[in-house]
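From the shared-data thread, chain only:
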Amino acid sequence: MSGVDDYNTTVNDNHICDLSYQYNETHITIESNGLPNHDFHSGPGCCASTQDYSWTLPLTPTNDTDCNPDLATTGCEMAPERGPIAISVNGVPFFGPEDGPGGDAVAGNEGAYEEDRQNVWLGLCHGHSGPNGMYHYHADANCVHWHVDESVGETWLDYSINSSRSGSEHSAIVGFAFDGYPIYGFVGWDENGETKEMTSSYRLKEGETGYNGIEDYEYLAGIGDLDACNGIFSPTPDFPNGTYHYVSTFVNGEGDIGFPYFLLCYRGEAELGNTDDGGGGGDDPDCSGHGETWGPGIGPPPPGCGGGGGGQGQSSENGIASIPWFKAPPDSGAILLSLLALAFVAAAGLRGSAYPAVASGRAGTAL
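Structure, as tokens:
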């Protein structure tokens, strides 16, 4: 399996995207090294380096009853202003809109304002590296499904965000939020089942540019397709009976910039331990109880505790072999199938289609 290159270095880096998983009846824990499955730019934070991520997600999302994002974010768990808010299908984190100085990283990158506090720019697929070499996306991420056509001399630099926005088919899943709901690419279905680019319902406040980050935006229900969390309940190819899902957006309903790009709040009950220092429960987790409360045949480790007595799922270089936390096949519908597909795609080098079709009999149900 060939590796990928960081264009901000002077050598071919041959980075390998690595991902493994364990799951039980209720949760899946995904471990990744944080390197993408495509060539990339580290940007001013050069250079990207391997990480030790452990992301834990619910297999079946549970709606937050205090959250009604059709009206506003009031009562909803807000995504962190900075740092990880979700995970891509290649194991790389999604960050929120704000950059280090506190501005809107995407708006600044697209020329909505000039960032005079710190050198911030986004590279291929609107990603770059941050502190400690943490590569992450601020928008788009659809390049996880793009393929270089070497027969016509293409390279990863030929990837265009517009090709992902103008597709004639419903976009694939590009990631999962920490509440377990999927995040799809730009193209969805309207009420007639026709494809369209999905748009956000946020706009810049009068006189603002995005220089002040999140504070510069306001939610106006109905100007776009999506709610205050940047999500919608509707059918998708993977969930023909419908599911709540977030959407990667690049424009709002008025044709302006599509803040918040991935999501701003969580419709479901989020596993917020993933937001601590890049995933996995923060500092000094309680890793006691191996063989009593967690371990093979019992359940997954607490976030940040790794495998304890060993028995990790195999890496992307060796393929998926063991599932040490498995006891009985959980009946969690298409979300489980999609999450497992994530790991299988990683095992195959993430060069194929990221998600196989899910039979309608396994589709998710309305929550």
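Residues 279-285, 306-334, 343-367 have pLDDT under 50 and may be disordered.
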